[in-house]
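Team,

Forwarding the record for the chain on the shared tracking sheet. I've put the sequence and predicted structure together so nobody has to dig through attachments.
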Amino acid sequence: MRIPKTHDLEVLLDLLLPLEPLWSALRSSADYLTDYAVQFRYPGNEASAMNAKSALTKATAIRKEARASLGL
């Protein structure tokens, strides 16, 4: 499978759904986290503490699901 270079986590999720259809439940988290891939990468842009905590929670949930699916 050819994987495009992108920061859009929904695009990447769409590529994985044929292999892991239950991951469709992660779509809203992936959409939320996509903004963090670029927006807060450079000086001058900051997430609030509440937004950062929410992003960490969502990223942790995605990581947990991915690791479980891979048997890690």
